[in-house]
# Entry
Amino acid sequence: MTEKQLKESVSYLHKKGFEKPDIGIVLGTGLGKLIDEIKDPVVAAYNNIPFFPLATVEFHTGKLIYGTLENKKIVVMQGRFHLYEGYDLVDVTYPIRVMHQLGIKFLLVSNAAGAINLEYQKGEMMLLDDHINLQGGSPLAFKGVERFGERFVDMSAPYCTKMNSRLLAIAKENDIQLHKGVYASVVGPQLETRAEYRFLGRIGADAVGMSTVPEVIVANHLKLPVSAVSVLTDECDPDNLKPVDIPEIIEVASKAEPKMISLFKNLIKEL
Ligand code: HPA
# Structure
């Protein structure tokens, strides 16, 4: 990644009309419907944006969408890049840097995750309060990183406390169950073994998934306030583990999606 590449990506998007978005949003697996609510959408397919990684996984349609939501200019990533698709961590987080260059002031991230904390049930949501990076690398471990921000990024409060308290308040006001917890990111794409789920619980994770942490690290690198919400799609009980059912995971995410949309829309109104 170079400054020149970033400039070219941004200049392509400017030409398409992506003018000064206030907020960036990353939509996770099974969580794409927010885009139906965007007014005057402008769409850029990832494959057409210079220097964007190429989208691969089928259920990710791979588009950047610009438009208006709750009277705010937003830019939404429908589908994200994962380490398990063969990208590296710099690729995975490239779109975050592009959205930052477009001018976003806030970042909202969503994902589908497994519930490690067995007090949480599938179909419910969890606000990320903290995370554990188990992806074996950093999106900041590259030559020249200091040209984009400082190298030794503070991680004492990776999630924006102001946005997080607003999200909890919004959930309460709207009778939406929103847990708070620690998200562990793994590489995937295989799901976890019983021993791995047990391990994740013991090290303090409440949920596990294959995304989000690299994006959050880069948001912190860019001093971009970020909040993230997991939709819990399966219960990871090591003593009673059923074989994984990916269509079910996607279905659970879609069912919970209206609640997530409502949280994000209400927060956006206030930003
Ligand atoms: N593990 C990892 N990623 C996931 C899971 C899981 O159980 N559920 C949804 N994404």
Observations:
- Helices lie at 3-16, 89-92, 94-102, 161-173, 194-202, 213-221, 246-270.
- The mean pLDDT is 94.
